[in-house]
Structure formats: C-alpha cells, structure tokens
Design goal:
With about 160 residues, this protein is α+β, with helices and mostly antiparallel strands. The chain has 2 domains: about 5-60, Thrombin, subunit H (Beta Barrel); about 65-155, Up-down Bundle (Methane Monooxygenase Hydroxylase, Chain G, domain 1), CATH 1.20.58. Helix content is about 50%, strand content about 20%. The chain is built from 6 helices and 5 strands; from the N terminus they run E-E-E-E-H-E-H-H-H-H-H. The chain has a 5-stranded antiparallel beta sheet. Helix 3 packs parallel to helix 5 and helix 4 packs across helix 5 (about 120-140). It is globular. It starts with 6 loop residues before the first strand and ends with a helix.
Length: about 160
C-alpha cells in the first residue's frame, strides 16, 4: 500500500506522485483510488488500490539505480531482430514490463538505430513514449526538470 506523497511508477504511463486517496462509486461499486499527478504533462491518473499488484505499480528507483540506468544508456546497442515486427514486439514487451532498466535499453537501442537509419513511424512513437516514461521517473529521482533530464539521457547516449 502506498501513501500520499509517495513517488510511484505506473507501467506504460510513467512516474508520478500520489496526491490523495479517494473513494469513488463507479457502476454501483465503491472502491478506493490513488490519485497520481504525473510531472510531465501535468496529468492526473486514478489507480484502483485493489489492482496495484496486477497493474504493476512500484516505487521509483533510488539514486544508485539511476546511475545504473545511465550506465545502460552509455552501453553499446544490443543485437535486435532485423524484422521490424519482431523488434517492435520485443521492445513493447520490455516497455510493458515497467522495468526501467529494460525501458532504458529500448530507448538506447532505438535512439542508436535512428542514427543509423530513420525509424518507422511506429518505432518513433515507441521511442518517444519510452523516453517520456524514462524521463518521468528520472525527474522524480533527481529533482531535475524535464529538459535537464532529457539532456542527461541524450549525453549518456552521446547525442
């Protein structure tokens, strides 16, 4: 169970801060919800408290784990399938896992691949959304703003 003020990650959406816990009645059923504010886009998301395990909600990473993320970003590109469909599915599985280390590898691989040859529209959207997830969590870990965080990511990948 999380508390007001906790910084958490909502897989496929990014990181945010729990602002309140509300009870709402939806379709005749009362349930408790976390109301999470996302730092990027200033969006609010309601997460059912009863489903946090299935959804994969987790606390944000530590400073040490952030250094590990930056190390992953600095690594060389890993081998990916040549077939874009297989590559897309493999990357999507990594993103859906909510694991920031896997998301960092997707961001690194797609950014490096984009340098070699232009990404397809689908892979570009995937890169942008994975990068936003990565930035949203690193912003909360480091207390830097979005632009500074994106700059650090780009520098780690040598852009």
């Amino acid at each position: 169970m999380f508390n007001i003020g906790d910084k958490v990650v909502y897989p496929m959406h990014g990181a945010g801060i729990i602002e309140k816990i509300e009870e709402k009645e939806i379709l005749g059923k009362k349930s408790k919800y976390y109301v999470m504010r996302m730092p990027i886009g200033d969006m609010k998301v309601m997460i059912p408290v009863d489903n946090i395990q299935e959804i994969g909600i987790r606390g944000i990473i530590t400073d040490e784990e952030m250094q590990e993320v930056l190390s992953i970003l600095r690594d060389d590109k890993t081998k990916m399938p040549q077939n874009w469909n297989r590559r897309y599915r493999m990357n999507m599985e990594k993103i859906k896992s909510g694991d920031i280390f896997k998301i960092a590898s997707v961001v690194r691989n797609l950014m490096l691949r984009d340098e070699e040859r232009t990404l397809s529209t689908g892979e570009r959207k995937m890169l942008n959304s994975a990068k936003q997830m990565l930035i949203s969590e690193l912003v909360l870990v480091s207390d830097m703003d979005q632009e500074e965080t994106e700059k650090i990511i780009n520098e780690a990948i040598n852009f």
